From TrEMBL:
This is Putative membrane protein. The keyword Membrane applies. The chain crosses the membrane at residues 59-80, 86-108, 128-153, 173-192, 204-224, 278-300, 321-339, 429-454, 466-486, 492-515, 536-556, 568-588. It is a multi-pass membrane protein. Residues 1-18 have a biased composition (Polar residues). It is found in: Membrane. Its main location: membrane. The keyword Transmembrane applies. Signal peptide: none annotated. Coiled coil: none annotated. Residues 1-31 are annotated as: Disordered. One of its GO terms (cellular component) is membrane. It comes from Rhodopirellula sallentina SM41. GO terms for molecular function: metal ion transmembrane transporter activity.
Length: 597
């Protein structure tokens, strides 16, 4: 594909060329009108109203980041650390906004399609790695979102009147999934069209996100009014505490530290391993690699250019960051109030028969057996399971609470726990709508991103055929959850595993755009200089280091995962092959300075 050889910014603010439509003589009247409105507002120093009216790409980001992964991660953060881990998602989204702001700055300053610019000016291996990783993430992430929507309908919304819901039958799953796929495809195609259809798409997404925010914020307000948590605890939880990387968080941390040395060492290792996993997952779902692809192409599709840079930062802060912090924070608070350092009376009992009646017993049994094995030592193999169960029943209640904290809960269990406060019907309705909105909005955006990916993959940036193909590939991949993921205990948590995979790919995008922000060949006179350049590089550098650290930890955990021994060599093989491709790409660029991809 021939590319632009001009090293200076390609998109002068006065230009009317549409970067997604090469050869088109002008952008639409709507884009020109938006540009004039923004420039007039900037000249008058009254930009807020114009920013609110023109916002859009940030809300697309919000629709994808508020998905099943964010919900699952927030729930487990609340279970493990209570409100003490609220800071994690706040820090993650701040880093995400920094990097997405850098991506918007590069895109709007040049007007060039990022995939083309990366391949032409930096390294084709980075460009293709970014694109392929984005497509893979779209297809992986789509599966748990369909599953999440089905669960919301089955467990909450379709049994409000006392019915049994949709059930666990394959026919019901396929029928519901096909309906969701058709509905999502229709909404995505609205975004392709101009005029009223595009406005309906924007309004629909904003309304969906607004519903999600209202559902979970409403629950948090009610919990506060009932005295379930304090504002002081919320503020304290917003302060970063990096010791949680290596020691148990929240009230459990204090209890574990008071245990006998053997018990303390055992539960510290278990809790910290879970905390690290969920911290990585939470960071990955705040900003994923596919979000770095969506932002520039959604802005270019709207005809945004250099005067829109301030609007882009405002849009990311208000449309993406604020809804994300509100929703995930409220889920953490609700999970903390319901599950953190709490167990039912049966599990706390020293009577084995009573303890076995606990609905949580089956899920904590494995960890509790492992705990008594450490006490028995060499005698563990010779001790009967019945004797071990008696030892489990005799364990202190603090150890049983630690074991319960390792049990993954879902939003539907949370709604049942809060039913006495909200009322059973209200709890089902609020959580059902919130969870369904999170899943469905994410499906829409993942399909949209994949449409952009296929256009770039086939070097046809204005063609509808590749776009529709990409949309359908992501949609059908997501719909395949019925055949591939049928275990009801694991469906909800697919988001966590997908997030762990995606976090290993995120540094690809972060490093690439870090290089672009420091490339005069790409940015020309728009490249930040002096103090602005230092500011950008320090902020981006922190985000890059955070992404690399999260990826390295994820790889380390895979290396020590006894349940999946093939995971580590597979991941390392892919990383090695890709690293060699990147090195080869830089060597090739040095020998072939012509701008060909």
């Amino acid at each position: 594909m021939a590319t632009d050889t001009n090293p200076t910014p390609a998109n002068d603010p006065s230009s009317t060329d549409n970067p997604l439509r090469p050869g088109a003589p002008a952008v639409s009247d709507k884009v020109r009108s938006d540009r004039e409105l923004l420039q007039r507002a900037q000249a008058e120093g009254k930009t807020l109203r114009a920013y609110v009216k023109l916002s859009g790409p940030g809300w697309l980001q919000s629709a994808i980041t508020l998905g099943g992964g964010s919900l699952a991660g927030s729930l487990f953060l609340g279970v493990l650390g209570g409100t003490s881990m609220l800071w994690l998602q706040l820090v993650a989204i701040v880093f995400g906004v920094i990097m997405l702001s850098a991506i918007s700055y590069v895109t709007l300053s040049t007007g060039r399609r990022p995939f083309e610019a990366i391949n032409s000016e930096i390294n084709p291996a980075l460009g293709w790695g970014w694109l392929i990783a984005t497509a893979m993430a779209n297809m992986i992430f789509c599966m748990p979102q369909f599953s999440l929507c089905y669960d919301a309908l089955d467990k909450n919304l379709f049994n409000l009147g006392g019915s049994e819901g949709l059930g666990d039958g394959t026919t019901a799953k396929w029928a519901t999934t096909i309906f969701l796929l058709v509905a999502a495809s229709f909404v995505v195609l609205l975004n392709v069209k101009q005029g009223k259809a595009a406005k309906i798409f924007d309004a629909f997404l904003k309304a969906l996100i607004g519903m999600i925010v209202l559902c979970f914020v409403g629950v948090a307000i009610l919990l506060f009014s009932k005295g379930e948590f304090s504002i002081g605890a919320i503020i304290a939880g917003m302060i970063p505490d990096f010791s949680q990387w290596s020691s148990p968080a929240g009230e459990l941390g204090g209890e574990v530290s008071k245990m006998a040395p053997e018990a303390s060492a055992f539960w510290t290792q278990k809790l910290v391993a879970s905390q690290r996993s969920v911290m990585i997952a939470a960071a990955a779902t705040a900003v994923g690699i596919n979000m770095t692809f969506l932002l520039p192409y959604s802005m270019l599709a709207r005809g945004w250019d250099k005067p829109f840079r301030g609007l882009a930062r405002f849009d990311l802060s208000t449309g993406m960051a604020i809804p994300f912090v509100l929703v995930t924070g409220c889920v953490v608070v609700a999970a903390s109030a319901s599950f953190h350092n709490k167990i039912d009376e049966q599990l706390a009992s020293n009577d084995l028969a009573v303890m076995q009646e606990s609905p949580t017993f089956a899920k904590v049994k494995k960890d509790l057996l492992a705990r008594v094995d450490t006490t028995l030592g060499d005698e563990a193999a010779e001790t009967s399971e019945q004797e071990k169960l008696q030892m489990i029943a005799a364990l202190p209640v603090e150890e049983k609470r630690a074991a319960a904290a390792l049990v993954k809960r879902d939003a539907f269990q949370l709604s049942q726990t809060l039913a006495p406060l909200l009322g059973e019907k209200n709890a089902k309705l609020v959580f059902g709508l919130g969870v369904f909105g999170m899943g469905f909005s994410t499906i829409i955006i993942l399909m949209l991103i994949n449409g952009y990916v296929f256009r770039e993959m086939l070097a046809m940036p204005d063609a509808n055929g590749p776009f529709i193909a990409g949309v359908l590939v992501a949609g059908f991949s997501g719909a395949s959850w019925v055949a591939l993921w049928t275990d009801p205990d694991t469906r909800f948590w697919l988001a966590i595993f997908a997030s762990t995979f995606a976090v290993m790919l995120l540094p690809i995008a972060y490093v690439t755009f870090f290089l672009m922000m420091n490339s005069r060949r790409i940015l020309g006179n728009e490249m930040p200089t002096g103090g602005r350049r230092w500011g950008w590089n320090i902020a981006m550098g922190a985000a890059v280091l955070g992404a690399i650290a999260a990826a390295a930890t994820s790889i380390y955990d895979k290396a020590h995962d006894a349940n999946q021994p093939a995971a580590f060599p597979t991941v390392m093989t892919l990383l090695t092959v890709y690293s060699l491709a990147v090195i080869a790409g830089f060597i090739w660029k040095a020998k072939h300075p012509t701008h060909q991809t």
